[in-house]
Amino acid sequence: MPLNNTQAHDKILTIILAGGQGERLYPLTKDRAKPAVPFGGIYRIIDFTLSNCLNSGLRKIVVLTQYKSFSLDKHLRLGWNIFNNELNEYVEQIPPQQRISDQWYQGTADAVYQNIYTLEKEQPEMVLILSGDHIYKMDYRNMALFHLENKADLTIACMEVPLSEGKRFGVIKTDEENRIVGFHEKPSEPIPSPNNPEATLASMGIYLFNTTTLVKAIIDDAKQDTNHDFGKNIIPEMIHSKEYMHTHLKMEPIIP
Amino acid sequence: MLTGRRIWISYKSHRNLIFTTKIGQSVLIRNKTRLQKQLLRKTIPEERSDMILNSIVSGGCIISGAKVEGCILSPDVRVDTNSEIYDSIIMESVRIGENVKIRKAIIDKSVNIPDYMSIGYNREDDSKHFTVTDSGITVVRKEMHLI
User: Fold this and answer.
1) Does A201 or B5 have the greater pLDDT score?
2) Segment B15-21 long-range contacts (CB within 8 Å, at least 24 positions apart)
């Protein structure tokens, strides 16, 4: 039985990470953040992620911004002012507020850590972490259902890419029961996928956490001197500690 | 929206097409004086027509007497007479003048491309003014008027 929109809305808080510098798109990112780069005539890159959220019934969205956020802020204000605050729907953008430390977001995990009060205030059952600069189509409700059915603490969406391209991604190693047993960021020799020896399972940077798990993991990470990155630190550490249940969901790539 | 092969002809370009056909001209010119006829012939070149192939053209674009192929045009883009644009992405409010040639380029918002300019044909020239990627795409960034 799939999740309906109300359930998805009640249970899940979406956090979109839009703070990257986007160096590879220079000079298009000279005056704007990467999610605000125009795409396909009348859209911007973040529209794809936001549109996926909207179509999945997720209407509690927090966008964490950092670099050159004015253009993105303007776009969200003018283009995405469609949610009703009275129904507890929102798209909020949060710059670094220096509530916890006096520094900017040090990494993806630190960005969430610095906004941990949002999680405390909202108290969602699950937290969906997305990137603001990916172009794809996906129904996050299927992922949430998969997460609940497997009683997982963390679900990672991934897709099969050719072995030769695996070097560019976070690569997942799984066992027979869909559980993740290894996660390597940009490995030199990617592990083949269990079903297809020609391909490897690449993480799409879409993470669905149980809130309690996430909070514990990022607080633990914040105490240590790491890169504070989900792909580099948090997830490998969680897999290493074997305390949690992790599953992966294989996606077929959909070109919009 | 992005799938499939589409041919777009904007209203303006369509009008030009009719305007420049021989029948159209004879109809238009019939009741004018000789001087007016000459002026009209001068301002409208004989074989002026638009061609827009395999492109996405957003609302508010004016393409007048130009050739556009394999491009994405954002809203409020002007392309003027005799210009040719191939395989490019043109962002909002870009003005492209007359006799401009653009190939494999990304033009950022609000850029004015002057008449007779060519982008994407000479890599060395392009890299003096613009960013050229390894794959040979020229990126023209936003104009900075104040600095």
Assistant:
1) A201
2) B16/B48, B16/B49, B16/B50, B16/B64, B16/B65, B17/B49, B17/B50, B19/B44, B20/B44, B20/B46, B20/B47, B20/B48, B20/B49
Q: What is the dihedral of CA A255, A150, A203, A75, to 10 degrees?
A: 60
CA distance B133 to chain A (A): 10
CB B69 within 8 A of CB B53: yes
What are the residue ranges of helices labelled H in A56-190? Answer: 70-79, 108-114, 116-122, 140-149
Do B122 and B139 form a contact (C-beta atoms < 8 A)?
no
On whether any CB of chain B is under 8 Å from the CB of A79, the answer is no
Q: Do A28 and B92 touch (CB under 8 A)?
A: no
Average pLDDT, chain B: 75
Beta-bridge partners for A7? none
Three-state DSSP class for B52?
Answer: strand
Phi, psi (rounded to 5 degrees) for B84: -130, 125
Closest chain B residue to A38 measured between Cα atoms? B91
- Cα torsion B65, B69, B71, B72 to 10°: value is 60
Q: Which chain A residue has the Cα nearest residue B132?
A: A27
CA angle at residue A126 from A121 to A127, to 5 degrees? 75
Taking the CA of residue B19 and the nearest CA in chain A, the distance in Å comes to 29
H or E stretch at B26: helix B22-29
Residues of A in contact with B91 (CB under 8 A): 38
Tell me which residues of chain B, numbers 108 to 137, contact chain A at a CB-CB cutoff of 8 Å.
Answer: 108-109, 131
> What is the C-alpha to C-alpha distance for residues A181 and A202, in angstroms, rounded to an integer?
14
For the question of an ipTM over 0.85, the answer is: no
Q: C-alpha angle A231/A236/A238, rounded to 5°? A: 115
Closest residue in A to B58 (Cα) is A41
Q: 0.90 cut: is pTM over it?
A: no
3-state DSSP assignment of residue B14 = helix
Residue numbers in B near A27 (CB within 8 A): 108, 131, 139, 141
The mean per-residue pLDDT over the stretch B14-25 comes to 35
